[in-house]
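User: Is it possible to get a 3D structure for a protein together with its bound compound? The compound here is pantoate. I've pasted both below.
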Amino acid sequence: MIVIKTIAEMRQLRKDAAGSVGFVPTMGFLHEGHISLVKRAKKENAVVVVSIFVNPAQFGPREDFKKYPRDIKRDLALLEPLTDIVFMPSTDEMYPKNYSSWVEVQDITEELEGAARPGHFRGVSTIVNKLFNIVEPTKAYFGQKDAQQVAVIKKMVRDLNMNLQVVACPTVREKDGLAMSSRNTYLTSEQRRAAPVLYKALMLAKELAAQGEKDAGVLRHEMTELIEKESLADIEYISVADNETLKEIHRMKLPALVSMAVKFGKTRLIDNIVLNR
Ligand code: PAF
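Assistant: Yes, that's possible. Here is the predicted structure of the complex:
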């Protein structure tokens, strides 16, 4: 495994790479969810590239950029058996002085996470576009846990005619259903015990839809009631939306994206499932 920090080195290695390149962009502090993406990339490609870069442009001024968890030594040890190249640029390497170009995907960034975190997807699409230009992957792998991020990146790739395939991989969960996330480490032990209520609410929505419930409002209402029973949980949004446009639906229409953002103290967790026909 080669660990590099500059764009010039990455470009040189890309030039020398024979066969397909599978790319997993990350912000580090890796967990089983990330590792499942790297394993998939390894299975499907000749060369695996993982980037580790905590992207300041996708954090709001009151968000957790400074305290976002970092553990490079542990990350590199986890990647060693699975990865050929780790690209770990500095902030100055990615955003030099006078940097002023941004990528904005419209419409689907207005809902859900986009509404709750203004500017977030502008930061995500810009950094992912830059990383794609530098790594030039054949395939890039993203977790379905960030469902809207996957939708935004797929749209950007389509709209800007980028020559790569975006692969969405299933959410990896703890035994009690909590979706794996680097931010889970912020939870106190009481909050950690309470957090699986998100998954329970998603399962409730799935069950209601399977029973033939046609009113999306009923799903939102029942999920809200269930989560509100958990005193440590503070709902930011609960959504039942069209899986393509991400606009809220009233009558159930499948496939639908059921998603939520819920705070436990200062820790904001997101989760989702897609209800299919
Ligand atoms: O999902 C993430 O970790 C980040 O949003 C990404 C895709 C690495 C861009 O910074």
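Residues 25-27, 55, 58, 124, 127-128, 146, 149 surround pantoate (CB under 6 Å). Strands lie at 2-4, 21-26, 47-52, 85-87, 139-143, 165-169, 233-242, 256-264, 267-275.
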